[in-house]
Structure prediction request, 187 residues.
Amino acid sequence: MNSKRNFSTSSILTVVLFLLSFLLVNGAAAAAPEEIVEIKGTVKAVSNKAKTVSVTVEGKGVIMFKFTEATEFVNAKSGGDIPPPTAVVVKYKTVGADNLATYIKKDLVQLPDGVAEIKTAELAALVAKGPLDGKYCLIDSRPAQVAAAGHLPTAATIPVNVLAEKGEKLLPCDKDKLLIFYCGGPT
Prediction:
């Protein structure tokens, strides 16, 4: 009988200690501020209906984030403006089981000094004139198999890896012409 009483007392004590530790841990977690984490990756999928964006992060795989009206979008108006495979920076906090995006930015390439962006309308006007009258040289630097599927009128195809190997010897135009490159990457 004495052993039953010791077992019963020790069981009750164990349960009480467990409940106290559970309350302390949950109370501490509730009081801790939500940590904001920043990641960089590539958009895999977006659902405006579910308000989610899935991002492939190197070394971590695919992570899904929820966005709300409070989510700050930079270089985009909404999730719909960030199609796959756009590079993004996401700041988020974990709320329950959800990764809640507080900030989603299209990660645009910074052009080096001496290089300027050409707007679509300006390029279209040049292409309409042609390379001689427009005084330009248009280079499609996408991979050869991608460029073979279709490219802009008047463009010469020189894949970036070939250009890196052989350099300016491959450029089919005079140095006094405007040199315009395009590719499939973000700018």
Summary: Residues 2-31 form the longest helix (30 residues). The chain has two domains: 37-106, 120-182. Residues 37-106 form a domain with the OB fold (Dihydrolipoamide Acetyltransferase, E2P) fold (CATH 2.40.50.320). Residues 64 and 123 are 37 Å apart (CA to CA).
